[in-house]
Amino acid sequence: MEALLNQILDRLDQLHSSVGSLTSEVNDIKTKMATKDELAQLQSKVNDIEAKMATKDELAELRFTVNELQSNINEIQAKMATKEELAELRSKVNELQSNVNEIQAKMATKDDLAPIWQAVLETNEIVKKIEVNQERHEHILAILSKRSIEHEASIASLRHAQ
């Protein structure tokens, strides 16, 4: 009987140990399980995420918009000058400015032209006087030529008369 009691006690100890182990596992499960508040918070977060998420239609619209923007960017890039092109243009502008400055330095001003203008006016007066003299000389030559022809005619008449 005593052996039977010992067996029962051993069996009770085993059951007690199994119950303790199960109790420990249940407690672990309880600690790992979410409470109603935690579930409500998780549901609220899921709802927020769903509210903030885009639909497939919205994503398609965004892709279309992004493609349009990319196209616009490509157009702008095609029209824009590169830094090298700008540097080249600046170089050409500087060269042209240098040429303009050089030409301006070599150009005559109104003050520089005043003596030349005065010389032109004086030369014009001299040319007019020469023209008047030339006309007078031409007139004299015409008269002399006429007299010379008359003299030759007279000489020729005298020669024929002899």
| Total helical elements | 5
Number of strands: 0
From the alpha carbons, calculate the radius of gyration and give it in angstroms.
Answer: 62 Å
Strand content: under 5%
Assembly context of the chains: single chain
Give the termini distance in whole angstroms. Answer: 213 Å
The major beta sheet can be summarized as: none
Give the helix/strand class: mainly alpha
Task: Report mean pLDDT, rounded to a whole number.
Answer: 87
* Unreliable parts: none
Given the C-alpha coordinates, what overall shape results? rod-shaped
Helix content: over 70%
Order of SSEs: HHHHH
Description:
- There is one protein chain.
- With 162 residues, the chain is mostly helical.
- It has helices at residues 2-32, 36-52, 56-79, 83-106, 110-161.
- The longest helix has 52 residues, at 110-161.
- The protein is rod-shaped.
Output the keywords.
5 helices; rod-shaped; mainly alpha; 162 residues
Short summary:
The protein contains 5 helices and no strands. The chain is rod-shaped and about 210 Å long.
Topology:
Elements: H1 2-32, H2 36-52, H3 56-79, H4 83-106, H5 110-161
